[in-house]
Amino acid sequence: MKNTDSRYKKILLCLFIMASAGIVSGQKKINSRTDWFIHDRFGMFIHFGLYSGAEGVWKGEKLRNDNNYAEWIQYRNRIDRDEYITLIDNFDWNKIDPEKWVIMAKKAGMKYVTLTAKHHDGFALWNSKSNSYNIAKYTNPERDLVKELADACKKHGLKLGLYYSHWVDWEHRYGWDHSRELTGISPENYDIYWQEKVIPQMRELLTNYGPISMIWFDMWIHHSETVVTKDQLVQLKSLIRELQPDCLINSRLGLSVEEDPDVDFQELGDNEFGVTKKDFPWQSPATVAHSWGYNKLDFQYKSTTQLLQSLIKNVSLNGNMLLNIGPGPAGSVQPEIENRLAEMGEWLKSNGESIYGAGAYDLPVNYNDWGVMTCRKNQDKTLIYLHLFSNPVSGILNVSGIDSAPAIVYLAGDKDKTPISFKHDKALITLQLPESINNKIIPVVAMEFREYPSHIDDLVAKNMEGGYSLKPENTASESGTYTFIAKQKGGTVPDYISLKDPVKLTWTIYIDAPGPKKLDISYSYQGGSEKNSVEIKTVAGSLHHRIKNTGKTVEEPRSNWIIDNFSSSHLGELNFSQTGFYDIEMFVNPADGEEVKFQWLWIK
Ligand code: GLC
């Protein structure tokens, strides 16, 4: 059995590093402007503009381009500007009421909204004095949707953000559209657009509508790759800092969070969700179906569970989610979208404590196989929330890697904090889940700790089946030369490591239920040598295995996808006679220098 002293030293060191880095609730503070943002986590994006009146179809032809973004219809279907404005007649202006959007956001548990004040079409949704291509000039009575939305946000206590397409503008004679890649545009002319339209319009938005919590710029390449100059961006952000110092700026300004401290958070790609933990604030813009602007032919609705999982996973990695609605010409959204938002709001009503003010915990990403954790630090306690994406049939949940014992465990949202019984055994918390979780969407278990709970580094989790999955990515240490090969052919060739020389990989597991365990290995080997071997060494004993040829297989009938077979071989049994930490050392020895592809080891 492993001496645990060094493990405790590691934990103390880790706590010391965290304290000195000034981490609050698992997330480093970049600046105090973002405090509300990393607390609120969930906002509403609203794509509304002239394009909403087209609903994804122009003169009987559906949107060109498979990406199906209906707000691009003017550009995609090559619509003349003078004809494009006639879409204004398709709207039922009496029915359009931004307060309804705010109420929908509030009901969904969202804390901020971001409206497309000006999208790529260049049409302003407010009464812009500096450019007449705006909603007030084309509606009677005159409308100013930014003002109406600002008032509704104030009334209902939500923060207001504004999307402003700074780079692309299909209205201004010198604005950018991608056809300019063919025709070119001089820097002098582009600057005329910038000084005539962008700067004055931004000044209006930041002066006339009260506090603006964020400006959502939209340039998805770095400024150095296109027409916008650094000076122009600096001018823009200085204007924001001058007029509204607390307003957040997203990275689609065209500068990254790493290169400019005035960029407050990183905006991921469209419908791109987090995969790694980040210390700085970040956000995923997301849609319920596919398009951002209203598209009556877009039916690819994600389920409520999927949407909630995306939000939860982002929060577990210190990220936010900005979920979009694209109201149509009568101001409403598809019932499928509204229903999903309402269901998310219902879920957040009971489980919001695991989202608002919460962030990442210190264990690796995808650590436990039943779901993900978030962590929230209150003054006198820390909460770790377990989001169960799958419920164990046995009702027994294994939570590995936390060194401290919780004071109490209960279901999130349970005002009475009815205790859930648990056992803490050094590295494993075992919970007996109540029956009632089985009819809930993503049940959340709250574990309350008096002190910030320390985690254990480099420990393989005990999974839902009660086994341990030992893979190249969860080793405690390794030596020798190998190459990691990511999955191929749709995952039919799994992730593996390729090696031709001896390699040693070591994992650590915690055995809470002593007794004999079976060990299995999965690998692929295409040669004929009898000399290649695998050795397993632990204090519980050793095992030896001669590597055999695993042959090939065909991935699909009649396809030419002939792939190396990865199959599992039983290595034998070892008796782990005591509870405790065990190091599992595996030596793969390709004696003849032939390639062996190792995938996993399984202990149960
Ligand atoms: C892309 C699209 C734009 C959409 C945005 C949302 O940048 O060009 O239409 O508003 O993504 O993230």
Question: Keywords, please?
Answer:
disordered N terminus; six-stranded antiparallel beta sheet; binds alpha-D-glucopyranose; TIM Barrel; 604 residues; 3 domains; Immunoglobulin-like; Jelly Rolls; eight-stranded parallel beta sheet
CATH H-tier superfamily of the largest domain: Glycosidases
Number of domains: 3
Judging by the overall fold, what is the CATH architecture of the largest domain?
A: Alpha-Beta Barrel
Would you tell me which CATH topology of the largest domain applies?
TIM Barrel
Short description:
By secondary structure, the chain is an alpha+beta fold.
How does this model look, in words?
- The protein is α+β, with helices and mostly antiparallel strands and 604 residues long.
- The chain has three domains: 32-354, Glycosidases (TIM Barrel, Alpha-Beta Barrel); 361-449, Immunoglobulin-like, CATH 2.60.40.1180; 468-603, Sandwich (Jelly Rolls).
- Helix content is 21%, strand content 27%.
- It has twelve helices and 32 strands.
- It has an eight-stranded parallel sheet. Strands 20, 22, 23, 25, 30 and 32 form a six-stranded antiparallel sheet that branches. Strands 21-24-31-26-27 form a five-stranded antiparallel sheet, with no helix packed on it.
- Helix 5 (98-107) runs parallel beside helix 7 (145-156), helix 9 (187-208) packs parallel to helix 10 and helix 11 (304-316) crosses helix 12.
- It binds alpha-D-glucopyranose.
